[in-house]
Amino acid sequence: MSSGKRNLVIAVDGPAASGKGTLARRLAAHYRLPYLDTGLLYRMVARAMLDAGHDIRDAAAAEQVVGSFDETAFPEDRLRGREIGEAASVVAAVPAVRAGLLTRQRRFAAQAGGAVLDGRDIGTVICPEAPAKLFVTATPEVRAARRHKELAGRGEAVTFDGILADIRRRDARDSGRSDAPLKAAEDAVTLDTSALTVEEAVAAAIDIVEGRRAG
Predict the structure, then answer these.
(1) Among candidate residues 41, 10, 7, the one with its CA nearest the CA of residue 26
(2) What is the CA 69 to chain-centroid distance, rounded?
(3) Per-residue H/E/C for the chain
(4) Nearest-angstrom CA–CA distance, 199 and 208
(5) pLDDT digits over 164-189, tens only?
(6) Terminal C-alpha separation, the chain
(7) Tens digits of per-residue pLDDT, 18-57?
(8) Cβ neighbours of 154 (radius 10 Å)
(9) How is the beta sheet containing 189-192 ordered, strand by strand?
(10) Can you give the pLDDT at residue 6?
(11) How far apart are the C-alpha atoms of 68 and 13, rounded to whole Å?
(12) Disulfide engineering: 138 pairs with which of 6, 40, 173, 194, CB 3.0-4.6 Å?
């Protein structure tokens, strides 16, 4: 393991089920840095709206919720699953929600020593000056297979075709939104995990970070 982690901010972006969360967690452990799954923040907003009976497409309600929700109020098991993932994608398209979460994410990234954050706009909006940026991707079919296995393992009644449709719909929504669309930062290194094992992807991600640290 390389020593020294001064101001090492690692931005990991990519679409749903690309493997970015796994890679970000492993990078955080490797470099002994704090880790933030920024997608959970959007899931918290969506969960708070659903719990309050709001329509997740109600931008005014979303703006109110994002300014007052408590990050400690939601056990992670209430933030996982197909329904909440879809709701979070809808909520994330609301500009006021993205603006409301911006400060929280940047504050996390500004910790002494650095941090690892994963999401969809980390390298482009949240931490544009991050020294190491990865854009993690995989084919829609591979991502759907991964998500299907994950959800079926939790006992959810899902089909591969249904998950694939969800993946394509979320990709279109995330890439097509006007505010902070999903895209690779110009200086990000793209890592396609379609044909890689977890260990191979982790090794490749570490190589990318080390290459950036070496200048």
Answers:
(1) 10
(2) 19
(3) CCCCCCCEEEEEECCCCCCHHHHHHHHHHHHCCCEEEHHHHHHHHHHHHHHCCCCCCCHHHHHHHHCCCCHHHCCHHHCCCHHHHHHHHHHCCCHHHHHHHHHHHHHHHCCCCEEEEEECCHHHHHCCCCCEEEEEECCHHHHHHHHHHHHHHCCCCCCHHHHHHHHHHHHHHHHHCCCCCCCCCCCCEEEECCCCCHHHHHHHHHHHHHHHHCC
(4) 14
(5) 999 999 999 899 988 889 999 999 99
(6) 18
(7) 999 999 999 999 999 999 999 999 999 999 999 999 999 9
(8) 11
(9) 35-37, 114-119, 8-13, 132-137, 189-192
(10) 60
(11) 26
(12) 194
Tokens 């279109």 identify what position? Answer: 172
Say how far apart CA 11 and CA 79 lie, in whole Å.
22
- 167: its two tokens: 């993946």
